[in-house]
Amino acid sequence: MWTLAIDASARIGALALARNDEVVGRRTLESEDGLAAVLFQEIQALLAEHGLKTGDVDLWAPASGPGSFTGIRVGMTAAKSLAEVHGKPVAPVSNLEAVAAAVPESRNRAAVLDARREEVYGAVYGPQMEVLVEPAAWSWDRFRQEAAAHRPLWVGADDAIFTSEGAAPLPADEERAVVGNAVEAQARLAASRPPLKPEQVEAEYIRRPDAERNLRPA
Q1: CATH number of 103-178
Q2: DSSP bridge pairs for 116
Q3: How many CB atoms lie within 10 A of CB 195?
Q4: Which end of the chain has fewer CB atoms at under 10 Å, N or C?
């Protein structure tokens, strides 16, 4: 089974191609004009490296959020559209799940992403990826308090988040892991879960877009 994972939820995105549970190819997505400008050509290029076309993909695996609202929509729309065209299923994967799963250790992991506005997106997962603290937008102090009872390994997508100036500052002696883009873990997670029809797939924004938050009743 061929699985293609798409993560366009940050400024720099990524693709990962997996055969069964083995990732065999990866590409980085980056464009000053936005990832939508390069996404389809990069998908075709990655598939072509392995002698494949979009119709050969058995499962489309978009990052479902949280992250950039525009980026999530770009990746989700691409995956759902290509799946619909070729009559294939979709298996969305939470960015927090992918970040936690990118760490191979079998232990409790607290996944943390910068949510801006002095908040983090956070969730805690157990050794088998069971949810111990539900994904949400938190103040950092509140999430640290909620997660502390599980004695987790802190996991982030970049080095900056755990620094004194970052969204989730940690003391130097507190254990953490930085995984970068977790698209390979995303591909493996997708292949292990029940697939959905494209119309059943929804984003996991967690927090409403600013445009919606700023709307006021007439």
Answers
A1: 3.30.420.200
A2: 119
A3: 19
A4: C
Encode pLDDT of 163-175 as tens digits.
999 999 999 999 9
* Domain ranges (residues) in the chain: 2-93+183-213, 103-178
The amino acid occupying position 47 is: L
Cα angle: 169, vertex 106, 124; to 5 degrees: 45
| Pure H helices in 136-182 | 140-148
d(CA 66, CA 115): 8
**Does position 214 have pLDDT exceeding 90, yes or no?**
no
CATH fold for domain 2-93+183-213: Nucleotidyltransferase; domain 5 (3.30.420)
Token pair of 29 as six digits? 């997505």
Residue with tokens 């059943």: 200
Number of neighbours of residue 169 by Cβ within 10 angstroms = 13
Distance CA 104, CA 127 (A): 10
Sign of CA dihedral 110, 204, 45, 52: positive
